Amino acid sequence: MDKIQNNRAWFLVLPVLVIVAFSAVIPLMTVVNYSVNDTFGSNDFFWAGLEWFQDAVTSDRIHEALGRQVLFSGIILAIEVPLGIFIALNMPRQGFWSSLCLVLMALPLLIPFNVVGTIWQIFGRVDIGLLGHTLAALGIDYNYVSDPLAAWITVVVMDVWHWTSLVALLCYAGLQSIPGAFYQAAKIDQASRWSVFRFIELPKMRGVLLIAVLLRFMDSFMIYTEPFVVTGGGPGNSTTFLSIDLVKQAIGQFDLGPAAAFSIMYFLVILLISWVFYTVMTNLDRDGGN
Amino acid sequence: MVQITLRNLAHSYRANPQTEADYALKQMDHVWQDGGAYALLGASGCGKTTLLNIISGLIKPSHGRVLFGDTDVTQADTAARNIAQVFQFPVVYDTMTVRDNLAFPLRNRGKDAAYVKARVDQIAAMIGMEAMLARKARGLTADAKQKISLGRGMVREDVNAILFDEPLTVIDPQMKWELRTQLKSLHRDFGHTMIYVTHDQIEALTFADKVVVMHEGRVVQMGTPEELFEAPAHTFVGYFIGSPGMNFLDATVSGRSARLAGGHEIDLGADHGAPSGRVQLGVRPEYALLADGEGLDLSIRRVEDVGRHRIVRAEIDARPFDIVIPEGVEIPAQPRLTFAPGKINVYADDWRVAPNAGAA
Amino acid sequence: MTLELQGVSRVVAGKDHIHPTSLTLQKGTMNVLLGPTLSGKTSLMRLMAGLDRPSTGRIIWEGRDVTGLRVQDRGVAMVYQQFINYPAMSVYDNIASPVRLAGKSRAEVDRAVRSTAEMLRLTPMLDRKPLELSGGQQQRCALARALVKGAGLVLLDEPLANLDYKLREELRVEIPRIFEASGAIFVYATTEPEEALLLGGHTLTLWEGRVTQFGPTAEVYRNPADATTARVFSDPPMNFLPAVKSGHRLRFSDHANAPADGLLAGLPDGAYTAGFRANHMALNRHSGSAVAFDCRLGVTEITGSETYIHVSHGAERWVGLVGGVHALTPGQTVQVWVDPAHVYLFDAEGRLAAPAPYAQAA
For the residues of B13-62, what is the DSSP string, one character each? Predict the structure, then answer.
């Protein structure tokens, strides 16, 4: 807090401040401007007050998209977090196989989002895709273009494939930091495998799990590219998540005002939920101390 | 509770050990009596932790056998050996309460609830943590956590041995006294076999009935604290035990008399024969006396006041020699050095030469 | 060359980490900060170094106010409990790095490195990497890095805590020698009373962020200003018991009392706390004036030539250090003897009311 300060250090921070101002603050202010004005495309603005916000709050369409979004984030968290932990627990701890695992796990994280979408879009096609074709050959009725359930499954599986390794890698790092004495003590106490997980591994992973859950929640709540490439939000509106809906509104219909109001609320919702997550998790931590 | 026997034990961390230097633990035979309080004392890297890990089953020895009673447990894993261990850093289950921590080993073995409660209450009373039983272990001080580890080690009545791996490392000096005496009372009350690994001679000597001194992968002496102090079997033990350690003077010995490099004659008080090799006299700083008049010449470099005594850092023939002077005793103006009668040990090539019986 | 703290305090989030402290450290002195974990040793050091800014007060270095001056701009060196060296550099380059950063010529660097290495007995290891050295040598390398730049203030934060007992003993002897050669102000933090005594110089005792006493080490040890200082500066802990002075007698219990003459003659009547150190307890009547106490024996710990005896006297638990080897059965009643010459008296506030007579004579 009151460390001895070196005022020259501020010069080093200055470039970052400038970049953040241009990349974040100014665009955000533009959006705020749009959200309280009406415009017809030219640079003429008419004050609209909170009208767009009212519209957004009462819009059924947005409610439905929000519902889908919450469901999607919930499902992928419920799958990716336990699956990531499970993978991390079963990864080799040292040696060649551990390095190999780490590289393989990191691969999906390195692929650009739209490429991930394209891969799965082709992979799942019934005519030429390996997955779609195989499923069809096995007599399973799978077509993500026409069947909403198939579309959902495809999008969820794609996200799990893309991001579970992030959770696994974070958990792996957490597990690696547990001293060997803890496992040895557990052996001596004849703790079951479940107890070792519940009382040693899980508490020690709590810090990284918090980060993993936060990252995965925020990312999934803002997901756009992959489902857009695979399903385009369809069939119908069945996989139209918030950001897809937002783009449809802003670009497709050029309703800049409502879209801007919507994005601000979207932003605030993510901020709020992340904050709640964070406070709850860190408070759990602190309660343990008393 | 059982006697632990190490038979022809040796261990190397290399796949194909060739020379003796490849062995972290040189071949040894050793018996740990049932109910004894032992300390394994040595510097870092002397093999004491390797030996402890072999007893606990964490390491399988490359040679030899480990017997618990008459049972060969060389290949048995830790859980099967029914031992308890307290580690250097407190190992507690943070999210459990103190009570659950203490009860954990019993519950895992399916003991009934009434017994677990009674036993945990008893142990909590012994380690002085009755008031904290309902608290979460997280956030307790290091010494409180270490007490829980200790309690978890004691809670099973049927353990074969309790192993301690430098358990007081993270504890403040003032708390060390409390934990150490607690440990001693626990040993007295329960009679478990205890093996305590440490580099700290005070901890080793005060805790153990028998101290095993290790040096470069070898047991150089096992004895009571008194034996290690009065008659170190090896110069390393002389140096390692005592603070400051034993002084050594090059000499030639024949019978009862020793002649120092400087020509001074000393009466050893007992017949030591005629040892060959490098012969040294070992004298504890506590048994070196400064007096006026007769004695050995020395030059005093500095005097350190350590409160209850003073340490005189002196030199004899340009080699350091320490003397301990009790509180309140004056250093004479023209000091000469003499040795307390019968307190001189003779070493030939680092090993002690015992005086001939009957001559003393 | 002096370092002066004028009313320096540090408050973090409403908590006093260091209570207002004024003291002056003189050139060429060894100053030991003695106190248990979390007593404020490191906080005080960080203030001295300029790593933290004091909440109040001023820090004067050689007559100049350096409060708020960055650590880089002061002549300060620090050594930590962990052995901090650059693992990829040789010992030579490790020692050379602070001088090179100061922009000295190649010849000057070489001279500084070689003389410092000689002082710390590192000359044969100059070409090795720190991780190839033993713990004691690694810490000596860190010490060399602190000393080489000729800093006027060298701060050592429990530098020997991570070393083996025997190595610690060796370095404790070496550190005062090194320190005499360098002429800097040394500040050395430790939790161990014995370490303070071995290092000598001056000792500053700390308790809960408060400096309880500062003076020559032997003086603080023999004449502690209050019960807290006595407790901090005793290992084993000091033994305490209540005492009442009435008239010419000092009463410890129904059976044990001593004449209240000499230093105690002028003391007002009333209740005091008496304190004496472990090595002043005996199992025999070692002096004519010794007072006997009936105690219940707890465990005994034998160190080889001496025995620690743990006894309880009423509600008090005492530790005694007696010469010789005594294997006694716990639970029995023993008589222990204490000479009033070794007894300190503290008043109700814990301040020293009467020093132990033996310490006055010394």
Answer: SSSS--SGGGEEEEEEEEEE-TT-EEEEE--TTSSHHHHHHHHHTSS--S
Task: Look up the domain containing C41 and give its range.
Answer: 2-231
Provide the pairing of β-strand C210-216 with B247-254: unpaired
C-chain CB neighbours of B242 within 8 Å are 304-305
| Domains assigned to chain A | 50-287 (1.10.3720.10)
**CA of B94 vs chain A CAs: smallest distance (Å):** 8
* A119/A161 Cα distance (integer angstroms): 11
Single residue among C197, C212, C231 that ends a domain in this structure: C231
| Distance between C6 CA and the closest CA of chain B, angstroms | 30
Do C156 and C13 lie in a common domain? yes
pLDDT tens readout for residues B121-172: 998 988 888 888 999 888 888 888 988 998 898 898 888 899 999 888 888 8
Q: Sort C94 into a burial class: Cβ within 10 Å, 0-12 / 13-18 / 19+.
A: buried
pLDDT tens digits, one per residue of A29-63: 888 887 877 776 666 777 777 777 777 777 788 88
Same domain membership, residue C302 and residue C212: no
- Residues of chain A in contact with residue C72, where contact means CB-CB under 8 angstroms, are 6
What spatial distance separates the first Cα and last Cα of chain A, rounded to whole Å? Answer: 26
Q: Do C34 and C10 belong to one domain?
A: yes
Residues A216, A106: Cα–Cα separation, whole Å:
16
Query: Ramachandran region of residue B113, left (φ > 0), alpha (ψ -120 to 50) or beta?
Result: alpha
ipTM of the complex: 0.84
Q: Which of C199, C231, C263 is where one domain is finished?
A: C231
User: Crossing angle, helix A202-221 and helix A256-287, to 10 degrees?
Assistant: 170
Segment B4-36, tens digit of pLDDT: 999 999 998 888 888 888 888 888 898 999 999
Tally of domains in chain C: 2
Q: Which domains does chain B have, with CATH numbers?
A: 4-230 (3.40.50.300), 243-353 (2.40.50.140)
Cβ within 8 Å, pair B105-A189: yes
